[in-house]
Design a protein that fits this description.
Blueprint (H helix, E strand, L loop, with lengths): L1 H10 L102 H32 L1 H9 L2 H19 L1 H5 L3 H21 L4 H24 L8 H20 L3 H27 L12 H27 L1
Helix pairs in contact: 2-6, 2-10, 4-6, 7-9, 7-10, 8-9, 9-10
Pfam families: Bax1-I (PF01027)
InterPro entries: Bax_inhibitor_1-related
Subcellular location: Membrane
């Protein structure tokens, strides 16, 4: 039955059923021409789209290889990725440029002023200096309070000369060779060797004094260095212009020390040690202001953090040795 109705619907010119079935809306009525079916709402029929030719002028997307059919736009500059990342198939370093270096004061596009660089440099220098002084105090305490170590050093005097040779070689290498004190990890290795050698020599030297004299010298040195550092940070006087005068004073002090060897005595020893303590106290202010930079005429580069720490360490060690000499000479 259903098949007969479908046949009638498609073959009857008036689209009418036999037996008085009423006409259905949407179908052709008698006497009217055939009407096309209206398209269903929401289901439009689209003709097949032809393939479009490649469009010129569209740049390739950053981070992806160029797509075939797209010509790169002249003058297009893609944004560079963050440091350590590169485009696919491209090196991490953009052509003709360099990424941001925190220690590079010439870097552009970053809100990183010279003052903030200098503060980071000062923190790094004092961190290294603190480790050096901690190692030195540990050696001094070991030689003062451990009798086995003191006896072992007395039985092996060659260790003193080995430590002295290591100290001189490493000190000259760091002072004269810029790559040695700037290139990591070589700079840290040389500084560690120098610190251990200098600490060993100080331990051997302090073993000849009583523990009370050494502790008194340590306390006085700490107070003097703290006061001089605060003075260097607060004063308006520029000590960085005194480099030539201080160098001449060191030469005179060395000549005075050579003369004092041939004329031993308590008085000349105290005078020599007092002059040495005063000179290296001024040197501590000088080296501190070189490290600070800012309004001072001369300053040390932030790349020279090893050299700055070495200068401060030498100043403090020399102040300690001269103060210990004054205490020992006054009590002997």
């Amino acid at each position: 039955m259903q098949g007969e109705q479908n046949y009638l619907l498609t073959n009857d010119p008036n689209n009418q059923y036999y037996g008085g079935v009423p006409t259905q809306p949407g179908y052709n009525q008698g006497g009217y021409p055939s009407q096309p079916y209206p398209p269903q709402q929401g289901y439009p029929s689209y003709p097949s789209q032809p393939s479009y030719p490649p469009q010129p002028g569209y740049p390739p997307q950053a981070g992806y290889p160029p797509q075939p059919g797209f010509a790169p736009q002249p003058g297009f500059q893609p944004s560079y990725p963050p440091q350590g990342q590169g485009f696919i198939g491209q090196p991490a370093m953009p052509p003709g440029g360099s990424y941001y270096d925190p220690e590079d004061q010439s870097a552009k596009g970053f809100d990183f002023t010279d003052q903030s660089i200098r503060k980071g440099f000062i923190r790094k220098v004092y961190s290294i200096l603190t480790v050096q002084l901690g190692i030195t105090l540990g050696f001094i305490a070991l030689f003062m309070y451990h009798k086995g170590t003191k006896l072992w050093v007395q039985r092996h005097p060659e260790m003193f000369w080995i430590a002295l040779g290591v100290m001189i070689v490493t000190l000259i290498s760091m002072a004269c060779c810029g790559n040695v004190r700037r290139k990591a990890p070589m700079n840290f290795i040389f500084l560690a060797l120098y610190t251990f050698a200098q600490s060993f020599l100080l331990g051997v030297t302090t073993a000849n004094f009583s523990s009370e004299e050494v502790l008194l010298a340590v306390g006085i040195t700490a107070a003097v260095c703290l006061g001089l550092t605060l003075f260097a940070f607060q004063t308006k006087w520029d000590f960085t212009v005194m480099g030539g005068v201080l160098f001449v004073a060191v030469i005179i002090l060395m000549l005075f020390g050579i003369i004092a060897i041939f004329f031993p005595g308590k008085t000349i020893t105290i005078v020599y040690a007092s002059a040495g303590a005063l000179l290296f106290s001024i040197y501590l202010i000088y080296d501190t202001q070189l490290m600070m930079g800012g309004e001072h005429k001369y300053s040390i580069s932030p790349e020279e953090y090893i050299f700055a720490a070495l200068n401060l360490y030498l100043d403090i060690i020399n102040i300690f040795m001269y103060i210990l000499t004054i205490i020992g000479a006054s009590r002997d």
